[in-house]
Amino acid sequence: MNPTTYSNPQNENNGTTSLNNIVNTKLIAYVIGILLWVEGGLFLICMGVSLFYKEASYIHFLYATGINLLIGGSLMTYGKGARTWMTRRDGYCIVTLTWLMFTILGMLPFYTSGKIPSVTNAFFETMSGFTTTGFTILDHIDTMPKGLLFWRALTHWLGGLGIVCFTIALLPIFGGGNLQLFSAEATGVTHDKLHPKISMTTKLIWTVYTLMTGACVGLLCLGGMNLFDGVCHAFSILGTGGYSTRQASIAWWNSPFIEYVTATFMIIASLNVTLLALCMQGRIGRLFKDGETRWFLGSALVITLLIMTGLYFKLDYPIEQAFRRAYFHVATIHSSCGLISEDYTFWPKYTWILLIYTMLAGGCTGSTAGGIKSMRIVILFHSIKNQFKRLIHPNAILPVRINNHVVPQPVVNTVATFTIFYLLCSFVGCFLLTLFDIDFLEALTTSISALGNTGVGFGCYGPSNTMSGMPEAGKWIMSFLMLMGRLELFNMLILFSPVFWKEW
Fold first, then answer.
1. pLDDT tier at 129 (50, 70, 90 boundaries)?
2. What pLDDT sits at residue 409?
3. Which of 41, 50, 256, 271 could form a disulfide with 147 if both were Cys (CB 3.0 to 4.6 A apart)?
């Protein structure tokens, strides 16, 4: 009944009949239809939460479920009998359109319930959720219905490893096309496989992800959170999202234990989930021998100590509090999570530079964290070292080595191109925001934060404020940046390239 999809490397365009033989529109429609039914099922879970707490908002999840099933069913009907191979182009189209459709339909409970009565704000809030950015326009989180709060948290947890990745693990029905979809959505320089079948790889990854979420829930509840708050915050932490069930975020509990637990799990969530899976299989050495992991952990430690020093000597924090607050905020920004325990904009200004660096760098490849990614930073660092050596030994062959393996020169070139383009996109976003009279520092940091899916900024859009006051045009610009950053720039922007729509 379902079309079996597989890759056809000899001729990607062979057999498709729409859009000038470039993409298989029927197959794209069929797959997106299935994914929308999955979102409808998630709405039913949230409806159950609303019913449990006796909230009237349950009806809005029911409406959203019906709309998802109707649109998804229509797309599946249109796509019935589609040609059965999936090309790389099809994968890029499916992933980008899925994230857009999930956001458009995912905002319905917010909008129809009247809790976010603006289309712009509802779209922004949902896009921020699915991309695990964590920017919010809500100024009354404590009074929001629990069903809607649970949906906000669930968008983080689902978006952390990826909507399509989740569906492949849950319903491995796309055959060989699973690899095309996984590659189009997964982030990082390379994609490690735990199993020859990509569907089994995603299942193992999601199993590890679920176990870590459960452990985080247990420890948060041990620290004083109730079960609902614990689950929602664990979804946000492991997805490195940033949504809280409280307007004051983690600061509401005023608990050192909760801060340490939250910070530690944010760091763990920033590590390559494949390496974490190997740790659970008893191969712990692989994690600490990994060059990217060592760089990321070393970066987090050094920056924590530098900020702790400033808090201790310049603001007279007690030594333990100075370390805890520095550790927490380095973890939350380096992991691109965005939960807060105090307003860091009152810290010494040199700490701002360090935090902006962590915002740019992000976490590790193959994690739920955003940013440029530590693997790219490591490759660039070694490339710069080699450039100095070439000045003395111009004829020397100096390959970049990571984990005792030579990084191919095309990969080094791709990393350099990505990093330059990433910085360029950040500055373009900053320029566009300043057109709407947003302060330069605020525009720069919110642009970097949106592209890195971090969810924190400075000034009017710092940790003590929300995005409710941003101009509507600015929210659409940031929504675009958030999606572009989550899909690692090229995976989304390639759809706007003339090359994508030309046959080879």
1. very high
2. 87
3. 50
Mean pLDDT of 54-69: 93
Helical axes 319-334 vs 256-269, angle rounded to 10° = 30
Residue in this structure with the two tokens 């659970």, named with its chain if needed? 280
Residue with token string 């496989």: 193
376-422, pLDDT tens digit by residue?
A: 999 999 999 988 888 888 887 888 888 888 888 888 888 999 999 99
Round to whole Å and give the CA distance between 290 and 149: 37
The CA distance from 288 to 295, in Å, is: 10
CA distances from 48 to 57, 245, 294, 405 (A): 11, 18, 43, 50
Q: Which residues fall within 8 angstroms of residue 475, CB to CB, at 6 or more apart? A: 120, 121, 123, 124, 137, 467
Q: How far apart are CA 167 and CA 77, in angstroms?
A: 19
Higher confidence at residue 125 or residue 367?
A: 125
Angle, helices 58-79 vs 146-161, to 10°: value is 40
Q: Can you list the pairs that 16-23 forms with residues at least 24 positions away whose Cβ atoms lie under 8 Å?
A: 16/83, 16/87, 17/83, 19/501, 20/501, 20/503, 21/503, 22/89, 22/500, 22/501, 22/502, 22/503, 23/87, 23/89, 23/90, 23/93
Q: Tell me if 116 sits within 8 A of 471, measured CB to CB.
A: no
Element (H, E) at 14: none
Cα–Cα distance measured from residue 93 to residue 101, given in angstroms and rounded to the nearest whole number: 12
List the Cα angle 404/406/411 in 5-degree steps: 135
Q: pTM of the predicted model, to two decimals?
A: 0.88
By the 8 A CB rule, do 329 and 307 touch? Answer: yes
* Placement of tokens 């349950």 in the chain: 58
Q: Is the pLDDT of residue 194 over 70?
A: no
Residues present in the chain in total = 504
Question: According to the model, what pLDDT value does residue 135 have?
Answer: 93
Q: How far apart are CA 354 and CA 364, in angstroms?
A: 18
Helix, strand, coil shares of the chain as percentages rounded to 5? 65, 0, 30
C-alpha to C-alpha distance for 121 and 126, rounded to whole angstroms = 9
- The letter for the amino acid at 140 is H
Who wins on pLDDT, 12 or 500? 500
Query: What is the phi/psi pair of residue 97, to 5°?
Result: -70, -35
Calculated CA dihedral for residues 348, 349, 353, 355, nearest 10 degrees: 50
Q: With contact defined as beta carbons under 8 Å apart, do 174 and 31 qualify?
A: yes
The residue to which tokens 């490759």 are assigned: 379
The type of residue at 9 is P
Residue 151 exposed, middle or buried by CB count within 10 Å (0-12, 13-18, 19+)? buried
